[in-house]
Amino acid sequence: MESQFLKLINRWMPRNQEAVRSWSRNERIRAMSYIFLNTAAIVLCAAFTVISILLTLSGLRDFSNAIIAGAISTVIALLILIYFVNTARLTASTTLFSTLFLVVCLVCVGVSGGPNSPLLPLLISAPIIASVTGGRGEGLYYTGLILLLFYLLVFLNSMGFTFIQIMPPENRDIQSGVTWTIALLLNATCLFVYQYCYEEGNKSPRSKN
Question: CA 40 → CA 9, 100, 187, distances in Å?
C-alpha cells in the first residue's frame, strides 16, 4: 500500500509526465525531497500566520508585521510549488525555494540584532535545504553566500550600523534555546526526508540519464 508520504509527493508531481520520466534518479530524489519541504513550509507559514492573527485578536500584542510576513511567505511558497507543478523545472523551483528560505531567515536576523541575533542558527539550515533539493553544487553555493552575508553583517555592526531589535533582551536565552532546537530539528528532518526519498527512489526503475 502506498504510504501517505508518497501520496503527498505524487499529488504535487508535475503534470508533464514526459519531463518527469526524463529525470535521472538523482533528480527524482531531489524532486521528492523538494515537494515535501516546500509543502511543509507552506503549512508552517500558514500556521504561523493564523497563530499571529489569533494572538493579535486576543489583545496580548500587535503582531501585524508577523501576520504580513507570514502571509507573504505562505503565498510565495505556494506559488513556487504551483510553478513547479506546471513547468516541471526542478532546478529553477529548488533555487527559488532555497532563496525564499534564505531571505526569510535574513529578514528575521536583520530585525532581531543582526550578527548578535539569537536567530542566527537558522541560517545553518539554508545550505542543507539547498543540498537536499538542489544538489551538492547548490549547497556549496549557499554555504559561501551565507558566510559572505554573515561577515557583511559583522562588518556593518563594526562600522556602527544599528540593527533593529524587536525581541525583548531579557528573553534572549530562551530565544536562543528555541532557535537552536528548531534549527537542529529542521536539519534532522531534511536529512531524514532525503534518506527516505533516496531509498524510495532506488526502489523505482532507474530513469533515463
Answer: 12, 14, 13
DSSP string, the chain: ---HHHHHHHHTS-S-HHHHHTS-HHHHHHHHHHHHHHHHHHHHHHHHHHHHHHHHHHTS---HHHHHHHHHHHHHHHHHHHHHHHH--HHHHHHHHHHHHHHHHHHHHHTBTGGG-TTGGGGGHHHHHHHHHH-HHHHHHHHHHHHHHHHHHHHHHHTTPPPPB-S-GGGHHHHHHHHHHHHHHHHHHHHHHHHHHHHHHHHSPPPP-
Tell me the pTM.
0.87
Grid cell of 40 as nine digits: 511543509
Predicted confidence (pLDDT) per residue in 76-120, tens digit: 999 999 999 999 999 999 999 999 999 999 998 988 888 988 889
